[in-house]
Specification:
The chain is mainly alpha-helical. It is elongated. It contains 8 helices and no strands. It starts with a helix and ends with a helix. Residues 14-46 are annotated as: Disordered.
Length: 160
């Protein structure tokens, strides 16, 4: 009974055009030319294929370049923070060629961060930090630390 139902459904699907491809191909003449299937001449189809391949190569090259730029940024950050090097990043840079550099906007960001750090490390930067500090807050923190140390010492030493 199940075989009979399956066969009926299969026949109905073929009649709707969803199946039975072998019967339809025989009726149409069975052209296997992809250009005719696309509605183009052979030359148009070949030109279209060449254009598609060229566009894919351009996209792949742009993608490889972006990956290498990101890897270059990671290398710079690893050097800056003294982190271990990644062989994968170095391989991506080599695949794109050694002319890979940081994108301009990322270079500006890195340069700005570097300038800020240099300013903080300089003597003038340290003096500005001292001017920005509140002396009352520093006194309160020092007093709290001293009191805490005194209480800890009293708890540990029974002589005091």
């Amino acid at each position: 009974m199940a075989f009979f139902v399956k066969t009926m459904i299969s026949n109905q699907v073929k009649n709707l055009g969803f199946g039975g491809g072998s019967e339809e191909k025989k009726e149409e003449g069975g052209t296997s030319d992809p250009a005719a299937a696309q509605g183009m001449t052979r030359e148009e189809y070949e030109e279209y294929q060449k254009q598609m391949i060229e566009e894919k190569m351009e996209r792949d090259a742009a993608f490889t370049q972006k990956k290498a730029e990101r890897a270059c940024l990671r290398v710079h950050l690893r050097e800056k923070y003294r982190l271990p090097k990644s062989e994968m990043d170095e391989n991506q840079i080599q695949m794109a060629g050694d002319d890979v550099d940081l994108p301009e906007d990322l270079r500006k960001m890195v340069d700005e961060d570097q300038e800020e750090e240099e300013d903080k490390d300089s003597i003038l930067g340290q003096l500005q930090n001292l001017q920005n500090m509140d002396l009352d807050t520093i006194k309160e923190k020092a007093q709290a630390t001293f009191t805490e140390m005194k209480q800890t010492a009293e708890q540990k030493c029974s002589v005091m």
